[in-house]
Design a protein that fits this description.
alpha/beta; Rossmann fold; 47% helix; 13% strand
């Protein structure tokens, strides 16, 4: 039996609308047939679009009768009035009506921070975790970290010995990172780079020349992260959460992120990101992987905010399962490759 195809009509020609058009046209497997775009006005200047403009908002009732869409996605600029009467009529006809931000978030599993309404985000019901949830999460993480440390004692000793034989001391790399509420803590990892040499930046790609033979093997299977089990046991981190950034990068990343929104409104995204414990692994790690510049860090931020908004036990279990797949296979998932290719296309465009 063939899957039901959702006949999609996009209302608006905003930047968000163009992202939705590109996403639905390049990913046919999503099951959407794009009928076209409804422009804000019949005589206004329109940006270059990857599909046909089928009319203006004034003609929306006639367009609905002619094209018979199953779903309307409304992606208008904030300055544009919403055609309430026409959208209510669409709902009465059984057509699904969805905000562009929600549609894009559901498709990409990340937050479109350019058009993010911070009020909607902060007031989202998913963010209202109870004190009992927080206590249970903390206990589960502490118990799991203690059990893992006991189980991995032979592996930890083997890795420490391999590092000593390959490149000497120190065995651990300790660095101040930003934790819950923006508070710094000392994160521990197995050292994967030579202790000498000039550190160009905090991004992995700028220091690839310093990675040791043992370090390459540890990074491939993510085993350099194992000492962070002590951070989890101490309460600095959880197993799952946004990866903690170095303190030295925090101000720069926070400043850049505050100015991403197209509305010109400065939104403290990093305050939102730091509202949960950082993690050994996270949604951004399994969906995007490592970042090597500002643009990639901002892309990862979109996934981190999605996790903050939608975090749950089931999402945590999914992240852990995908992380274990990467650990045992030694390679990134197809989702990571697809996300980085899409990011590269956006940068080139």
């Amino acid at each position: 039996m063939s899957p039901v195809v959702d006949r999609l009509l996009v209302v608006g020609t905003s930047t968000l609308a163009r992202k939705i058009l590109n996403e639905t046209q390049t990913r046919r497997s999503l099951g959407y047939t794009l009928l076209g775009v409804v422009a804000e006005a019949s005589d206004g200047a329109r940006p270059s679009l990857p599909c046909d403009v089928v009319g203006s908002i004034d003609d929306l009732p006639a367009i609905l009768a002619r094209l018979e869409p199953r779903r309307l996605v409304v992606a208008l600029d904030e300055s544009e009035p919403v055609p309430v009467a026409a959208l209510l009529r669409a709902k009465m006809l059984g057509i699904a009506v969805e905000r562009g931000e929600d549609f894009c978030e559901r498709l990409s599993r990340k937050i479109s921070i350019e058009s993010l309404d911070s009020r909607d985000f902060v007031l989202a019901p998913q963010l209202r975790w109870s004190r009992l949830d927080a206590i249970m999460t903390r206990v589960l993480n502490a118990v799991a970290a203690a059990a893992a440390l006991i189980a991995f004692v032979p592996l930890l000793a083997f890795i420490a010995a391999a590092i000593l034989l390959d490149s000497g001391r120190p065995v651990l790399f300790v660095q101040e990172r930003v934790g819950l509420g923006g508070r710094p803590f000392r994160l521990m990892k197995f050292r994967t780079m030579s202790p000498g040499g000039v550190r160009r930046s905090e991004w992995a790609g700028d220091n690839a020349h310093r990675v040791t033979r043992t370090g390459r093997w540890l990074r491939k299977f993510r085993l350099d992260e194992l000492p962070q089990l002590f951070n989890v046991l101490r309460g600095d981190m959880n197993f799952v959460g946004p990866r903690p950034h170095p303190v030295s990068n925090f101000e720069m990343l926070a400043t850049v992120a505050r100015n991403v929104a197209e509305s010109g409104v400065s939104i403290p995204y990093y305050l939102l990101r730091s509202s949960v414990h950082p993690g050994i692994t996270g949604w951004a790690q399994v969906r995007y992987g490592y970042a090597n510049d500002i643009v990639q860090e901002i892309e990862k931020l979109r996934y981190d905010l999605y996790y903050v908004k939608h975090r749950s036990l089931w999402l945590d279990l999914r992240i852990v399962a995908e992380t274990l797949r990467v650990v045992f296979s030694g390679r990134e998932s197809e989702e990571v490759h697809s996300a980085k290719k899409a990011s590269a296309r956006l940068r080139a465009g």
